[in-house]
């Protein structure tokens, strides 16, 4: 592992979850200091494990006041934020006719509004310094319609369009904006999804066979894609969705 994020300050949301934890660990190995944030109080474990390098903030990224607290804490304790990884998200698996207004709002807010709020708070400092990188965790659901994922596909599609739009607005200011298009990942998110199915074993087999690579991803494989997009090796990449999906969207 190269120390390509030496001296950098990173904010990672969804940091108590599978992908978020893996990304935080890789950023730390790469020399960064990380503000790890999640709605789950379990995020505090990360700071206990690496005091000084990790600052944990329990916060709801769908609320502007909480987002303000995340960045104020990061700036005060770690310095100006160089990289934002907007990774928090969750799914409710339903078709349009079964989705309540509240379910629609919760999924849109967690996956799309959160990205807007986090970016809006990160950008002024990045603009002032003429440098920054933003990565959002998207999905196969950002680019295709999947069964019974009405609100989630809409939210992850909106996220991708905001990635493209911000890439255009901010490229000339030295700020890159990209997304990872994740396939299925071995995290609590996937476990909960499978448990909600009538036949979890059949669901697992179907998911694995949907990925030409024949399996789902481990969180580290998605974190690797996040770090690539966030870092100097992707210096000419912006407005892009990197499909880390085992070939799923290539069919
Ligand atoms: N696991 C998969 O199969 C899969 C596939 C494609 C994309 N994704 C995306 O990957 C990202 C990471 O998910 P994961 O697989 O690590 O799942 P996860 O459930 O392990 O982690 C997601 C984290 O986001 C947090 N979160 C949710 N809503 C929040 C809010 N309002 N404020 C703050 N934190 C909040 C949760 O508490 C959780 O810790 C998500 O955006 C998800 O949509 C996951």
TrEMBL record:
Q: Give UniProt keywords alphabetically.
A: Oxidoreductase
Q: Which domain of life is it from?
A: Bacteria
Q: InterPro entries from the xrefs?
A: NAD(P)-bd_dom_sf, Sc_DH/Rdtase_CS, SDR_DHRS6-like, SDR_fam
What molecular function terms (GO) are annotated for this protein? Answer: oxidoreductase activity
Regarding protein family, the annotation reads: Belongs to the short-chain dehydrogenases/reductases (SDR) family.
Protein name according to UniProt: Oxidoreductase
The source organism is Mesorhizobium hawassense
Tell me the classification of the organism that encodes this protein: Bacteria, Pseudomonadati, Pseudomonadota, Alphaproteobacteria, Hyphomicrobiales
């Amino acid at each position: 592992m190269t120390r390509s994020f030496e001296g950098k300050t990173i904010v990672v949301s969804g940091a108590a979850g599978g992908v978020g934890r893996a990304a935080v660990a890789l950023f730390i190995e790469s020399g960064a200091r990380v503000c790890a944030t999640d709605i789950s109080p379990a995020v505090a474990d990360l700071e206990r494990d690496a005091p000084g390098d990790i600052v944990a903030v329990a916060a709801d990224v769908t609320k502007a006041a909480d987002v303000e607290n995340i960045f104020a804490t990061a700036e005060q304790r770690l310095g100006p934020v160089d990289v934002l990884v907007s990774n928090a998200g969750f799914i409710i698996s339903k078709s349009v006719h079964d989705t309540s207004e509240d379910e629609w709002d919760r999924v849109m807010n967690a996956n799309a509004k959160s990205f807007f709020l986090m970016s809006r708070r990160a950008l002024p400092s990045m603009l002032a310094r003429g440098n920054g990188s933003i990565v959002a965790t998207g999905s196969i659901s950002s680019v295709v319609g999947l069964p019974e994922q009405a609100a989630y596909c809409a939210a992850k599609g909106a996220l991708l369009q905001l990635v493209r739009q911000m890439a255009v607005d901010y490229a000339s200011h030295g700020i890159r904006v990209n997304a990872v298009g994740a396939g299925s990942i071995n995290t609590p998110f996937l476990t909960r999804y499978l448990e909600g199915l009538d036949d979890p074993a059949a669901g697992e087999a179907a998911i694995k066979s949907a990925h030409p690579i024949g399996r789902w991803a481990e969180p580290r494989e998605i974190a690797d894609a996040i770090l690539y997009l966030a870092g100097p090796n992707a210096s000419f990449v912006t407005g892009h969705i990197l499909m880390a999906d085992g070939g799923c969207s290539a069919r």
